[in-house]
Write a structure and sequence with these properties.
Strands 2-1-3-4-5 form a five-stranded parallel sheet, with helices on both faces. The chain has a single domain (about 5-125), classed as Response regulator (Rossmann fold, 3-Layer(aba) Sandwich), CATH 3.40.50. The chain is built from five helices and five strands, in the order βαβαβαβαβα. Helices cover about 40% and strands about 20% of the residues. α2 (about 35-45) packs parallel to α3 (about 65-75). The chain has helices at about 15-25, 35-45, 65-75, 90-95, 115-125, and strands at about 5-10, 30-35, 55, 80-85, 105-110. The protein is α/β, with parallel strands linked by helices. It is globular. The longest helix is centred in the N-terminal third of the chain and has 13 residues, at about 15-25.
Length: about 130
């Protein structure tokens, strides 16, 4: 069974993971953080229904967040994806290159508490 309040956050920067976890936990979400995308993928594969959303950084050393998101969607088509990046990138660009990621959203870094929580709630269709 999927928890509508459990989120996996994947970013190679520990500081970002800590900040995002704190933001989301204040809003009542359960958060599992991963600084290695391949580790996150292995955890997801063992229990794909555990998470309602994956919040993924685009640029990571092992594999890109886009590649990871595609891998997650191959395991479970309905997993919600929210991509975070400090670089200029559009949803249209990502979706045209990787149609398996439709629908998805982008959270632009740097962000503040409310932006993260609003983006997650929007993806999960939770009223504000």
């Amino acid at each position: 069974m999927t928890s509508d309040r459990r989120i996996m956050v994947i970013d190679d920067e520990i500081d970002i993971l800590t900040i995002v976890r704190r933001f989301l936990e204040k809003w009542g979400f359960e958060v599992d953080t991963f600084n290695n995308p391949l580790n996150a993928y292995e955890v997801f594969k063992t229990n794909p229904k555990r998470y309602s959303l994956a919040l993924v950084d685009v640029r990571m050393p092992e594999i890109s967040g886009i590649v990871l998101a595609v891998m997650l969607r191959k395991v479970r088509k309905d997993i919600k994806i929210l991509v975070m990046t400090a670089y200029e990138i559009s949803v249209k660009d990502i979706e045209s290159d990787t149609p398996d990621l439709k629908p998805m959203n982008i959270l632009q870094k740097p962000f503040v508490h409310k932006q993260v929580c609003d983006a997650v709630k929007k993806q999960l269709q939770i009223p504000s």
